[in-house]
Fold:
Amino acid sequence: MTMIDAGAAIPDSTLARAITQFVRDTETELLFNHSSRVYHFGALAGLQRGLRFDRELLYAGAMFHDIGLMPGHASADERFEVDGAHVARDFLRSHGVSEADAYTVWTAIALHTTPGIPVHMHPVVALVTAGVEMDVLGLTYAQYQPAEREAVVSAFPRTAAFKEDIIQAFYDGIRHKPDTTFGNVKADVIADKEPHHHRGNFCQIIRDSAWKG
Structure:
């Protein structure tokens, strides 16, 4: 079996093990495996880009990035990204992580659905988004070697209908607070002034991605 590059392996530390246990006990298997793949794909992207990054902080950002979708950690009126960022920051503080590092992870999670900005920020912020964009949208699918993709998916399998399953998981996590999904207002300006413009559709991008299933 192809092994994941050592530079992208899950840290062997007390903090990482605590993160793993907390998220495994809290999330569905679908989201736990997705978050684990996000970490590995983000770390591999960091190696590809020659970035220096803290694997523990990247692991925290990746593993907590969707925890705001879970009922026990979802607020009534905050974006799910912010809910997850709060949970991660509180968890890291309780484990002695510095305020600066906890805030870096908070930022990574809060911005992971905001394309075009994280790539210019702290490596942990950039790489959480890179991992999400690879696993959910397949935007950088061709930038990973087949053996790398196989190793990550072998360790943390995708469901047979992952695309529809993950869209449903997103919907289930936000359906009670649809107003928090308000996005980039400039997209509304284009839609208002250009009636024939077809804006990008997040769900369709998932379905059209290079990933199977």
In short: The domain at 6-208 is CATH 1.10.3210 (Hypothetical protein af1432). The chain has a mean pLDDT of 94. DSSP finds ten helices and no strands in the chain.
